[in-house]
Amino acid sequence: ELKVEQNPLFLSMQEGKNYTIYCNYSTTSDRLYWYRQDPGKSLESLFVLLSNGAVKQEGRLMASLDTKARLSTLHITAAVHDLSATYFCAVDMDSNYQLIWGAGTKLIIKP
Amino acid sequence: GAVVSQHPSRVICKSGTSVKIECRSLDFQATTMFWYRQFPKQSLMLMATSNEGSKATYEQGVEKDKFLINHASLTLSTLTVTSAHPEDSSFYICSSTSGGARVNEQFFGPGTRLTVL
C-alpha cells in the first residue's frame, strides 16, 4: 500500500527565514505533485515532478524529487506572509492518475 | 491553463434531501474526473473516479447508492448526495486531468461546501 508522509504537519516561522517541507512515500513512483490550499479554498497546483532529480522553482519556492530515496522536498526561501497556506504533496499510485495524498503541512509565516 | 468550475460553491440543505453538485471543465475535455471530500483540517479523501460514458469507480467505504456520480459528457460530471445527513457535511472538490503537455497534472475545482442541517 502506498503511503505518503509529510513533515512537519505544522510550521510557524518568521518572515525572511528559510525552511523545508519533506514528503516521503513508500512505494516506487516517479510522479509527485505539490499543491497549495488557502483556508476555505480549493487546491492550486504548484509543481509537477516527473523524474528522478527533477528540480523546479517558482519565486521563493523550490521543489525537488529523489525517486531513489522516495523523497521530495519543498524549500521556502526568505519566507513572506503571503506564503502562509497548507501545502500538500501527492504521489501517483498508478497510470490512472489517482493520487495518494500527504496529510498536508500548515505553514504560518509571521510578519 | 486548465480551468475547472463547480456549482454551487456553497449549499445548505435539510436532512433527508438530495443535493447535486456540478463539475465542469471549461477549456478542455475531461475524460476522467475525480471527486474528493475534505473534512476540516484534514487531507483530501478520494471518493470516486469518474470516466465519461461509463460507471464511476468508487473507493472502498464510499456508498455508491448514496453518492451518485454521472459523467455524461466530456465537460460535465455531477455528484448527487442522496438523502443527506449531517455527517455528510463536508467540502467536496472535483478535479480533472487535462491531457496534452500537462497530462499528469490534476486541476481542481473551487470546491462545494455542503452543510446538512
Average pLDDT, all residues of chain A? 91
**Portion in beta strands of chain B:** over 45%
Q: Determine the N-to-C terminus distance of chain B.
A: 37 Å
Largest β sheet strand count, sense and barrel closure of chain A? 6 strands, mixed
Major β-sheet annotation of chain B: 7 strands, mixed
**Radius of gyration of chain B, in angstroms, nearest whole number:** 14 Å
Give the strand tally of chain B. 11
Give the proportion of residues in helices of chain A: under 10%
Q: What structural category arises from helix and sheet content of chain B?
A: mainly beta
Oligomer: heterodimer
Proportion of residues in helical segments of chain B: under 10%
Pick out the low-confidence regions of chain B.
Answer: none
Overall 3D form of chain A: globular
Q: pLDDT average of chain B, as an integer?
A: 90
Largest interface pair: A-B, 22 and 21 residues
Q: How do the SSEs of chain B run, as a string of H and E? A: EEEEEEEEEEE
Please describe the topology of this protein.
The complex is a heterodimer of chains A (111) and B (117).
Chain A: E1 4-7, E2 10-14, E3 19-25, E4 32-37, E5 43-49, E6 55-58, E7 61-66, E8 71-76, E9 85-92, E10 99-101, E11 105-110
Parallel strand pairs in A: 2-11
Antiparallel strand pairs in A: 1-3, 3-8, 4-5, 4-9, 6-7, 7-8, 9-10, 9-11
Chain B: E1 4-7, E2 10-13, E3 19-25, E4 32-38, E5 44-51, E6 57-58, E7 67-73, E8 76-81, E9 90-97, E10 106-108, E11 112-116
Parallel strand pairs in B: 2-11
Antiparallel strand pairs in B: 1-3, 3-8, 4-5, 4-9, 5-6, 7-8, 9-10, 9-11
Your description of this structure?
The complex is a heterodimer of chains A (111) and B (117). With 111 residues, chain A is mostly beta strands. Chain A has no helices and 11 strands. In chain A, strands 2, 4, 5, 9, 10 and 11 form a 6-stranded mixed sheet that branches. Chain A has a 5-stranded antiparallel sheet with strand order 1-3-8-7-6, with no helix packed on it. In chain A, strand 9 (85-92) and strand 10 (99-101) form a beta hairpin. Chain A is globular. Chain A starts with a strand and ends with a strand. Chain B is an all-beta fold and 117 residues long. Chain B is 0% helix and 52% strand. Chain B contains no helices and 11 strands. Chain B has strands spanning 4-7, 10-13, 19-25, 32-38, 44-51, 57-58, 67-73, 76-81, 90-97, 106-108, 112-116. Chain B is globular and about 40 Å long. The A-B interface holds A 31, 33, 35, 40-45, 48, 50, 88, 92, 96-99, 101-104, 106 and B 32, 34, 41-44, 46, 49, 93, 95, 97, 102, 104-111, 113.
